[in-house]
């Protein structure tokens, strides 16, 4: 109406009625942001949530949800529940600070979205998503200098909603989250190491611990000089290949062993890499802190 569109125009065949107060052009190709924006504008007091909010926030989702076109909307208990065709509705308890407005779209914050997704994701998937919330950003590549949240901040959020569906998985995931994983495969590699009952590696391991410009390994064991790298798809670019080679040679020149994992190792659940890590841990002196208690595994 504000745009001068009359009720008669809305009845033309080139316009499709989606739901109360919502219309779309007949030939419209689905666009998640546009759909969410219209839904948000037509639903006072409600907000975009769950997987839809995760996608709009560019949060890390498992492959089976990464291209989801589901539209999720949450409402407080004081309002009638969502009854729109094609919309997944949720009636929830949420504080105002758990809801944000981004580019005119009212949606759940990244942290609240992570908690909402606990009802649907596995513990491992929640850890991957959570690690990205607490990771330290790199100012040279990102437009921020602080993480989206902290483990303590997420614990406070979880404690605020003890009856939320999936909260038990969220608590379990919190215990497994660590600052230092730059990607989901790095988190999955770390979890595979833990599942194999191996000592927990140090993340973002600098060759020279006091030098901020030092070459860095994704993870490793300093006291036995073992560096572990996960090289994803972007590492195949020529410039990145050269950078990786310089990085690895720096570690090797200092007497370190470098193990490099790839997407093939990820598909194999890092089975061969875990065997290599075990081999190096067994080679450590028996009285070494990292090797203590490992010889019989």
Quick overview:
It contains eleven helices and eleven strands. It is an alpha+beta fold.
- Based on secondary structure, the structural category is alpha+beta
Mean pLDDT: 90
End-to-end CA span: 71 Å
Strand content: 15-25%
Number of domains as seen in the coordinates: 3
The total of helices stands at 11
Helix content: 25-40%
What's the layout of helices and strands?
Elements: H1 7-10, E1 15-19, E2 22-25, H2 32-41, E3 47-48, H3 50-56, E4 71-76, E5 87-92, E6 99-102, E7 105-108, H4 110-116, H5 123-134, H6 151-160, H7 167-176, H8 184-195, E8 202-206, E9 216-221, E10 226-230, H9 238-253, E11 257-261, H10 263-267, H11 271-282
Parallel strand pairs: 4-5, 10-11
Antiparallel strand pairs: 1-2, 3-4, 6-7, 8-9, 9-10
Helix pairs in contact: 3-4, 5-7, 5-8, 6-7
What does this protein look like?
The structure is a single chain. The protein is α+β, with helices and mostly antiparallel strands. It folds into 3 domains: 30 residues, no CATH class; 148 residues, no CATH class; 118 residues, Endonuclease, Chain A, CATH 3.40.960.10. The protein contains 11 helices and 11 strands. Strands 8-9-10-11 form a 4-stranded mixed β-sheet, with helices on both faces. A hairpin with a 4-residue loop joins strand 9 and strand 10. It is elongated, with a radius of gyration of 24 Å. The mean pLDDT is 90.
């Amino acid at each position: 109406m504000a745009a001068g569109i009359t009720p008669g125009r809305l009845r033309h065949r080139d316009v499709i009625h989606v739901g109360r107060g919502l219309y779309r052009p007949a030939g419209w190709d689905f666009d998640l942001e546009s759909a969410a924006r219209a839904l948000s504008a037509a639903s006072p007091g409600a907000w975009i949530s769950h997987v839809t909010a995760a996608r709009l926030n560019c949060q890390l989702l498992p492959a089976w949800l990464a291209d989801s076109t589901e539209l999720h909307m949450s409402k407080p208990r004081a309002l009638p529940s969502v009854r729109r065709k094609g919309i997944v509705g949720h009636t929830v308890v949420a504080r105002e600070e758990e809801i944000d407005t981004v580019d005119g779209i009212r949606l759940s914050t990244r942290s609240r979205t992570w908690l909402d997704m606990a009802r649907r994701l596995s513990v491992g998937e929640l850890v991957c998503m959570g690690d990205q919330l607490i990771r330290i950003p790199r100012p040279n590549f990102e437009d921020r200098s602080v993480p989206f949240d902290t483990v303590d901040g997420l614990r406070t959020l979880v404690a605020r909603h003890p009856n939320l569906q999936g909260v038990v998985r969220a608590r379990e995931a919190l215990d497994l989250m660590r600052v230092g994983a730059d990607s989901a495969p790095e988190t999955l590699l770390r979890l595979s190491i833990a599942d194999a009952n191996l000592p927990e590696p140090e993340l973002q391991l600098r060759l020279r611990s006091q030098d901020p410009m030092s070459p860095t390994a994704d993870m490793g064991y300093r006291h036995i000089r073992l560096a572990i790298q996960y090289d994803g798809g972007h590492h195949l670019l020529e410039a990145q290949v050269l950078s990786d080679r310089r990085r690895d040679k720096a570690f090797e020149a200092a007497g370190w062993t470098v193990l490099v994992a790839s997407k093939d190792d990820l598909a194999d659940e890092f089975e061969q890499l875990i065997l290599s890590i075990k081999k190096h841990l067994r080679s450590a002196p028996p009285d070494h802190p990292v090797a203590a208690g490992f010889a019989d595994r």
